[in-house]
Amino acid sequence: MQNEIVFAHNPFSELTEVRASALHGWGVFARRFIPKGTVWWQARSQDVLVIERDQYEAIDSLPRTVLVNGLLDAILHYSYYPSGLNRLILILDGAQFTNHSFTPNSVDDPTKLQSLALHDIGPGAEILEDYSHYGKCPWAPLYGEFAKAIWERN
Hints:
The chain has a single domain, classed as SET domain (Beta-clip-like, Beta Complex). Helices cover 23% and strands 25% of the residues. The protein has four helices and ten strands; from the N terminus they run αββββααββββββα. The strands form three sheets. A four-stranded mixed β-sheet has the order 1-2-10-7. Strands 3-9-8 form a three-stranded antiparallel β-sheet, with no helix packed on it. InterPro entries: SET_dom (IPR001214), SET_dom_sf (IPR046341). This is SET domain-containing protein.
């Protein structure tokens, strides 16, 4: 994979909606039938913040104010780390509420910054991904305590 990001059409709002989840807080749900292999989320420049290591370290070194703590919390809970890019991708469009499952119905493709249906997803079904397939960032403790449970299991 090249060290560049290509942004394309994002079908997120057409195919999904964010609402309360029985699993954890908020979740992403299919608005309509999503066939296996369908890209239901694709990064676009307006939908993500790309955070370089030096930017993260600059924020992390600031005095801990309510604002700094909130920003770090958002970064560490709602970003993911595509290993080949060595950057954090902070999702802004609602897809950040995709919940974890070890039996997912979706998978991310870090080479294209997108998520695809692993099998047919029916209307109203919650879309779930296995976070242990995301890259483990060597310089930012993503997902907090939850990360320990994910990567200790594997």
